Amino acid sequence: MKLHWKIALAIVAALVAGHLTPVESDLFKVYDFLGTLFLNALKMIIVPLIVSSIICSVSGLGEGDHLGRLGGKTLLYYTASSLLAILVGLAVVNITTPGISDGKPAGAQLNLGTDKAALQKALSRIEGRGSGDIVDIFLRMVPKNIFAAAHETQMLGLIFFSILFGVFMTRISGHYQTTLQQFWHGVADTMVAITMFIMRFAPVGVFGLIAETVSATGFGAFKPVLGFFLTVVVALALHTFVILPLALAVLGRVKPVRHFQAMAPAMLTAFSTASSSATLPLTMECVRERAGVSRSTSSFVLPLGATVNMDGTALYECVAAMFIAQAYGLDLSLATQFTIVLVALLTSIGVAGIPAASLVAIVVILAAVGLPPEGIGILMITDRILDMMRTAVNVFSDSCASVIIARSEGETEVLKGETEVPKE
Questions:
Q1: Which end of the chain offers a freer environment for a tag, N or C, measured as fewer CB atoms within 10 Å?
Q2: Residue 373: which of 205, 231, 230, 124 has the closest Cα?
Q3: How far apart are CA 323 and CA 321, in angstroms?
Q4: How far apart are CA 82 and CA 88, in angstroms?
Q5: Residue 25 falls inside a structural domain
Q6: Would you say 386 and 98 are in contact if contact means Cβ atoms under 8 Å apart?
Q7: Is 45 a domain residue?
Q8: Residue 64: other Cβ atoms inside 10 A
């Protein structure tokens, strides 16, 4: 049985078990133990996983001629596209406020706030901050001690150091570069293997987290979760049907409707599989054969996009972090929201190719702004369907990049026919 079906069964079982279990019983303590153990396992892998993944991703971009003109355009588009997606998500979640239920924070309904010390620490870091504290964010990006930053889970500093290390690792010569490449790829592969091992127990952890919540609050948790679900859907729709078509029309000077027609098979496959990597062969075929993009452009832009460009995932991470913050009753300042945007952008690049990427990234974002991660368990209820949606958005954004960059490179036959490439 595939993992998502196991998680689905665990959710159903947790709903039943939580409904039948009183808070005073020993079973409630078992649920708490299982959920906490799963969250601790996720926290355990954050630092080595993020550091090794980002170093490998950045150093991989420096191989060969990938940082030339085509590479520069591609990275610029992917950065701008992900940033716009995050800002769309931030705007929608601030308007809809799904973490506020009946005028009050939904933390009690979601069984949050049990860790008083962690919540007080988050409040002390967030309260009283204003736009002037954005300067402090950039200061924290350059840690005085990288090991202290790792110990204190200061993710901005770790991410910045990892990017620098990956860039300059490609500039040393001889066997030192080869040794470092092999070492960090070995660490990254090992951490992915550990992540996959931990995710095998995700159904058990999700069962504990949700059963504990339902046992403590009943089914009241599902109203804010439904609001969160609809918020993500609306934000994804705005990015897919407004922002990206505008980019195609303005930057690519093509008709967005034709591109939707060309990419329909790939988007449906991405939706059904929830995997950008598994959809990549079909994405490349649609972009070449149906949209008319050259092999040289698509062969570079699309594989790179499957690795570093995750518009839908970045948007989801931002909305999820804001939802949990709202549920805790925290009034996030401009500086704190800027931190969420920045970390969501950087982590969407660094963790894109790993299993459970969004789950790990949300933990990273919450840690960056000082929020406890307990709220992520309830998000798993709607995660599968949202994962399918955001994967389709990820793939469509990659394909838009290939069209826009192909047009900027002077390719004139892109989307000129009825979704078929002209004969050479």
A1: C
A2: 205
A3: 5
A4: 10
A5: yes
A6: no
A7: yes
A8: 9
416 domain-assigned: no
- Backbone phi, psi, residue 104, to 5°: -125, 155
User: Tens digit of pLDDT per residue, the chain (424 long)?
Assistant: 777 678 788 888 988 998 888 878 888 889 889 888 887 887 788 788 778 877 887 776 655 454 567 778 888 898 899 999 999 999 999 999 998 887 888 877 776 754 555 555 555 554 444 444 455 656 767 888 888 888 776 766 887 888 889 888 888 888 888 899 899 989 988 987 888 888 788 888 888 888 887 787 666 667 788 899 999 999 999 999 999 999 999 998 888 999 998 898 888 888 866 777 668 778 888 888 888 888 878 877 887 777 678 899 889 988 988 898 888 887 777 777 888 888 888 777 655 555 556 777 787 787 777 777 777 777 777 777 788 888 899 999 999 999 999 888 888 777 775 444 433 3
* Residue 263 falls inside a structural domain: yes
Name the one residue in this structure whose structure tokens are 């808070």.
23
Q: Which domain holds residue 266?
A: 3-408
In the block, residue with structure tokens 């355990």: 44
Element at 168 (helix H, strand E)? helix 155-169
Q: What number of CA atoms fall less than 13 Å from residue 29's CA on the CB side?
A: 3
Alpha-carbon gap, residue 413 to 264, rounded angstroms: 19
Q: How far apart are CA 278 and CA 282, in angstroms?
A: 8
Q: Which residues pair with 113 in a beta bridge?
A: none
- CATH number of domain containing 273: 1.10.3860
